[in-house]
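#lab-general

N.A. 3:47 PM
ok so I finally got the sequence cleaned up, no stray characters, all 120 residues accounted for. can someone with queue access submit it? mine expired

B.Y. 3:52 PM
send it over

N.A. 3:53 PM
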Amino acid sequence: QVQLVESGGQLVQAGGSLRLSCAASGGTFYKYGVGWFRQAPGKEREFVARITRSAGRTYYADSVKGRFTISRDDAKNTVYLQMNSLKPEDTAVYSCAARDEWVTSDWGYWGQGTQVTVSS
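B.Y. 4:20 PM
back already:
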């Protein structure tokens, strides 16, 4: 079992930056791929970015490509989402999720989320 806890969300002005953290415990973290997702009020949850286990390949939604960077530090059991050039439309609850991608494509473990609010 993996437990995930997000942190770093806050109110920021448009054009600003934030770094979100997803801290894991209770599992062998290096085995897991990790993704960031977001959900704005009245909208469905959407994929933001993900990073694979081992080689740490990264993938991004088109809406954040070039502005957001996902990275991982397996020694600290933590995945980060560096968010630059933030826009009001980035406002959402951001959640991280994990999966043992050698076993399943389902995101089986989720954190509780952290609120990011970007003011114009």
